[in-house]
Amino acid sequence: MGLRVLAVDDEADFIETLVKRFTYRQIPVTAAASGPEALALLDREPFDVVILDMRMPGMDGLTVLREIKKRHPLVEVIILTGHASVEAGMQGMSLGAYDYVLKPVDFGELLEKAKKAHERKKLHEARNPA
Amino acid sequence: MIQDELGKLRLKLIAITLAFSFIPLLSLGLGLYDRLSDTYIDKVYGNLRNLVENKRVTIDLFLSERVAQLSNLALTESFRELSGEAYLERIFGVLQLHSKSFLDLQVIDQNGICVSYVGPYQLRGIDYSREDWFNKVMAKGIHVSDVFMGFRKYPHFNIAISRREGDRTWVLRAAIDSDIFDSLVRSVQLGKSGDAFLLAADHVLQTRPRFGHEMFDKLNFPDIPRFSGTRVDEMTIDGQPSLYAMTWLNLKDWLLVIKDDPHEELLPLYRARWLLILLLAGGSLIIIGGAVFTANATVGALVRAEREKATLDASLTQSSKMAALGKLAAGVAHEVNNPLAIIMEKAGWMRDLLSEEDIKASPNFGEFEDAVAKIEFHVRRAKDVTHRLLGFARRMEPTQEDIDVNLLLDQTRSFLENEANFRGITFIRNYQNDLPRIESDTSQLQQVFLNILDNAIDAIDKNGSITIATRHHSESGEVDIAIADTGKGIPKETVEKIFDPFFTTKKVGEGTGLGLTISYSIIEKLGGRIHVESEEGRGTTFHITLPVGA
Fold it and tell me: HSE-up of B149 (CA within 13 Å, CB side)?
């Protein structure tokens, strides 16, 4: 089964371009402009990898991450952070995120990490058949 | 400004100390001296008064004895009996038994004719009726003359007593040697220049003084009206100030005078005065010295405190400036990061599209591709800046490792060895070999050393040396690392700004102006200090002080 990506960020221009670039590579991607919207989408459709921005108005990235891990433990999350500190990334990873990527994003790196996250998810699913 | 105030404070301290010391010292000293001098002068005057009084009593006693002898004689014997010279001679003999000072004795009748005489001269038959003293004794009954030479050619005086017997009056007269006064008066115990003499009412000397005058000289003495008791005056006579103790005799208008040199009498007092002046002067010197010393010490302590405060203020100002700048930088970086992310994505999307066949055929394809590459390159550059800014604002908590500073410096130096060799720059190691290992963060310290060494190489440019010294200050428990270059130095006006963010002297694109800012915040987080000393044209030294234990 192919990689299905959910991208969550409040910056419309950013998310739009990200969607275009994934689509261009034939990877199905859905955009969400906020945490609650992303959670609603996750409840309705299956996704493999969530790309999640930390800084969003309303529900912030860490809260959304906790919620995702509670409801869909097998979904892998890649954190997008503007903080240069490893600290913020580490905090996210301790909450169950697969990895973190610093903004501005190198798309190649992001794509690579998304693919690896998907592989890990498949591994997990094989071990724990639902 | 502050120097002026401290100078004033110093003077004030000295003035107050002096005032509070001198006022009691002087009042005590002068008060005591005043009391002492009053008491002493009273005593000196009292002594003189006693002396003159005693002498007066003696002389009065002598005179009254002589007068009493003669009057007894005159009252007990009759004119007829005494007119016989043989009898008179016998009486004179009896008189001389009592007192050797009787020179002669004569009896004079009512008409002033000497009727009988006992003595060394032939005076019988002499007529005294014109003499002043004869008239006086006839009128008053008793007369004591002044001392004179007379035809006896010997200083003497006469006592004459008149007696009324029936209807006639006769006179008994004796000449008395006045040497007795000399010996009485001179026996006064006086100092070297002291003197004593008897003075008649007309200021003629009745005795021979020790100095300056002969007997019968007339003294230039003020008129002293008769008074009772004794008197001590300080008078200047013939240009010589002296103390004069005076008293009038009871039986004769003679003034007994004791003269004394005030300097000699008051010498102990003058000595005490000199001693007092010396003590006061010595005490004053000690007080002044003490006051100046105390004031200097106080002001010195204040100056030191002021300097320490200024240093502390400066470092506090620097820290709070850094904190504020850190917040500002973080805010700016965050805000810039999002647009940068979008630009990056848009450029990436363009690159994706450029790989399509039809665009590749476009004549401007090369230009597009180049432009996209440039956009991506510069976004990465901007990203570097924002990430470093964020790093400066929110540094990772430092780790605690056991570090050999000398070794770490050597490792860091080795990264730059090639470039330094190429530019003709030598490293001089001046390490303390037994430097204690410190607890700190290796990678952050390395970043700081690298930054400073890199700056040093840039400052030298070509040919020079960089001296790296390490020292342990055991008393403060700190390690000091000094990195000194022989470069161009930093001008005075910019040396304060070198730790400020974005302050750089390098060309645009070569330095971000964040290196030293980050170094500063790293060292501060590690509990140390960093400061710079620089002299234009001679080089710059960075000092990094780190605690041995974190």
Answer: 4
Q: Which residues of A touch B345 (CB under 8 A)?
A: 13-14, 17-18, 21, 104-105, 107
Exposed/middle/buried for residue B82 (C-beta within 10 Å: 0-12, 13-18, 19+): buried
Q: What is the mean pLDDT of chain B?
A: 85
Give the side-chain half-sphere CA count within 13 A for A129.
0
Of B342, B353, B379, the CB nearest to A14: B342
Architecture of the domain delimited by A5-127: 3-Layer(aba) Sandwich (3.40)
In this structure, how many other beta carbons lie within 10 angstroms of the beta carbon of residue B151? 7
- Residue owning tokens 């005078």: B257
| pLDDT at A36 (0 to 100) | 93
Domain ranges, ordered by start, for chain A: 5-127
Which residue matches tokens 């002026």? B4
pLDDT in tens, B302-361: 888 888 888 888 777 776 777 777 777 777 887 888 889 899 999 999 988 888 878 788
Nearest to A87 among B383, B388, B396 (CB): B396
Chain B residues with CB inside 8 Å of A55's CB?
334
Strands B478-485 and B539-547: antiparallel
pTM score above 0.90? no
**CB spacing of A85 vs B333 below 8 angstroms:** no
Judged against a pLDDT cut of 70, whether residue B42 lies above it is answered with: yes
CB B82 within 8 A of CB B91: yes
Helices (H), B355-394: 357-360, 365-393
